[in-house]
TrEMBL record:
Source organism of this protein record: Arthrobacter flavus
InterPro entries found in the cross-reference section: Fatty_acid_synthase (IPR003965), HotDog_dom_sf (IPR029069), MaoC-like_dom (IPR002539)
MaoC-like domain location: 198-269
Taxon lineage: Bacteria, Bacillati, Actinomycetota, Actinomycetes, Micrococcales
Any Pfam family matching the protein: MaoC_dehydratas
Full protein name: MaoC family dehydratase
Family to which this protein belongs: Belongs to the enoyl-CoA hydratase/isomerase family.
Amino acid sequence: MSELVLDSLPGLPSLYRSALISSVPLPWVRGRSATTSGIPELPTVHHSVAGVQASVADLTRFQHLIGAPAHDLLPSGFVHTIAFPVAMSVMARTDFPLPLLGMIHLRNSVEHRRAIHFSEKLDVSAWAEDLRPHPSGAQVDLVTEVTVANEAVWTGRSTYLAKGSRLAGPAVAPKEERTTFIPPQLTTLWDLPGSTGRSYAAVSGDYNPIHLNALAAKALGMKRTIAHGMYLASRMVQESKPAGVESFAWSIDFRSPVLLPARVALAISTHREAGLWRGTEIAAWNPRRAREHFTGTLAPLALTD
């Protein structure tokens, strides 16, 4: 696999503009990159950028947004915001076979291997892998790795769905049957105003119109603007991780979008043995409709190795 070294972090607004310009449907699914058999291929390239340092101002605003105390260590979700433009630059390539606009965020899994100080210089690398069928289209993983002096300190895998982008080849497996959701014991409620998407965009740089503008959201299949998945994930981690834990893994699976404004109910179940934290499970849902929004897990990283 080759490597494309970027001079600096790409700007997310310009990437979204490029995605809009190139969003005209093409052959196969999108028709951008395919083998001689007509089956699309992912670009075999890593995008990387070196020497990235967190902005203290952005860090402070991010901490305030997710309810975290001011601290000189980077929240796990904030590391994602630093690395995300590099992953986006992979998806915005002309040879990336799925449409960037309208991509649905299905899942995140992260290994946060140690505390990361805001003053550390971060090297970020991102690539795409595992393009595969989904009952509603095609899905792909974007993998991002953050290193400090060649030490891997944070690795994230984000899974996205391109709805309606059908892959050639074997028949798509039938949809999994979901059991009826029964809300667990309530732990807390989040009241998210209609401005939540704009607030997160201001601190993360993620100005995807599906989170900002009702007309754009409707054009992309939503009833109204939706909360960023990584805002929900970052807040989930902040409210579920015990204080002092510096090496941990977490994941989040999105079940249905959070339409803004919203009230989100959460159940947070923490497991301990002999006084030691062994993990936390989270469920979030719409309390009015009893519709599940997401599930999540956190665990000490040593238990996941």
